[in-house]
Amino acid sequence: MQGLQNPVRGVRMPRSRPARERRLEHGEEERVLAGCDAAGQPVLRPIVIWAIETAMRQGEILSLEARSIRGNVAFLRDTKTTRSRSVPLSTRALRVLDERPVPLRGPLFPITQDSLEYFWRKALRIAGIEGLRFHDLRHEATSRLFERGLDSMEVMTITGHSTADMLKRYTHFRAAYLAAKLG
Hints:
By secondary structure, the chain is mainly α. 46% of the residues lie in helices and 5% in strands. It has a three-stranded antiparallel sheet with strand order 1-2-3. The radius of gyration is 20 Å and the shape is globular.
């Protein structure tokens, strides 16, 4: 039996990727929205604003239908976690609905995921912004919810995070915000 070795001995667990901490920097939101306007896809700007205001995932936004909006709440049935949730809508999110025609049937934002990705990258090129992914808008929105004064349970209810650890991965406070709180 000499010469036999444990084949598992040399196996190493993969390292977990560091959590992304990318948020919109000063002036980038305006530049992204201007890029959206110039990209040639009229539904892109409303989707980006919606993502920033609601912390919804891209798939949740694209599957949302007008019938899922009741008053100032969006009811999500198709979520990543397969648990439905209700997302309160800010004044700015509601304005997105007021400023564009809302289809009676089908998706609220009629665009495919591939088209959204194409026009998103195009908008970023136009805006001269690097290193920003669409999913980073969820991080931005989550952090803004805390900056508006919501507590952890309220934010978890909105974002659909089931644990505080996962919520923490999406929350990135700016040092200037924290300094202002300290006085």
